Amino acid sequence: MRPSFDEMHANSATVREHYQTYDRWLAQQPRDVMKARREEAEMIFRRVGITFAVYGDKDSGEGTERLIPFDLIPRVIPAGEWCEMEKGLRQRVTALNRFIHDVYHGQEILKAGLIPSEQITRNAQFRPEMMGVDVPRDLYSHIAGIDIVRAANPDGSGSYYVLEDNLRVPSGVSYMLENRKMMMRLFPDLFSDHRVAPVAHYPDLLLETLRSVAPGGVNDPTVVVLTPGMHNSAYFEHAFLAQQMGVELVEGQDLYMKDGFVFMRTTQGPKRVDVIYRRLDDDFLDPKVFRKDSTLGCAGLVEAYKAGNVTLSNAIGTGIADDKSIYPYVPKMIEFYLGEKPILNNVPTYLCRVEDDLKYVLDHLGELVVKEVHGAGGYGMLVGPAATKAEIEDFRAHLVTNPSNYIAQPTLSLSTCPTFVESGVAPRHIDLRPFVLSGAEVQMVPGGLTRVALKEGSLVVNSSQGGGTKDTWVLED
Length: 477
Prior knowledge:
Strand content: 15-25%
Helix content: 25-40%
Shape: globular
């Protein structure tokens, strides 16, 4: 594995140009002052209630509330790099929305033989209930979180790659917003020295996007955020976004159907709902159509949705495009639907359902990262170089038993960024999740959520696996 690309240092003696002002500032900060700032940030986050649930036993449903660790040292991206990444994100999300519409309508990409039909029709995320259903603007994923990593090239430069497409209920944007507020509170002088592009207008863009996909003929749509409830790991974000947009936060029990429309109960009486930003999976939306034991959704919701009387963001069935077994085909989608070459490349990926790919993966398990196609949160995966022989052999048995359930990728050495840890400032591996909004237009705020693997040498940035977050600065010049 090549040495990591360091975001701040070109080599041990050279700081990259876009980090030089910050580097001079950091060199003047006493360690005890930085430590005090970190403790202040933790106290404020705890007081505000910015926590998430960590589930020790996934089957028990029991978890503990924990702060996501916040790092004081920002990840800085120069304007030119962001401009190119933004173009790539617009291109990718546009193609993915075209693909989802095609899957539930003409299936032209399957007829062209670019994706095997069984990859769609046998996929757990495919929803036959959506076949032929038209949705506003033909858009399915109104809010997408695209995970991007940077790896070193032989010449020492770094290249960005898309690691995952999160198109169902991507989370984390509240931490992006709160991290920025915290940095501006703790270090206001830094923002007078740097022209950092703002992110605070994200809730306005989100509301604008949601209103733009309301059912036809609705001039002043009522938007709500649908949460599974306060025990959900991302409940803080649900409440935060509803409050920031100035809309109601509702649970399934607050909604009901009447005459083919969805209404919510309010203290002023029933109010029709036009757009639901739902933060729960398809399976729990409507007990009449999906899981009959679900108490989290609203009975009859799918009927109103298919009739065009309410918009769901994101749409039912969107998960077909963020399944890891579909990810390898996204470059072909971009060429098929847009007639363009991908601006952002995928990580090379082996499909274990393909015999030759499986043979290679089994022969090189110690070098690869192997993931469940439906896995999330860093679970259900093998990081070969960090695994024991026993773990590798145990995973091999799973692979042989059910190869179609896995993909594999080379172990990328994610780029590193200086991070304030107990021993001082040290490099830690990071990724980036920009949030792309698709409505009347495709738009996003500059940057996104930078996640950092706080354990030395770890490549797993997920908060559920001990990762933290950083503020992401996109410089305006």
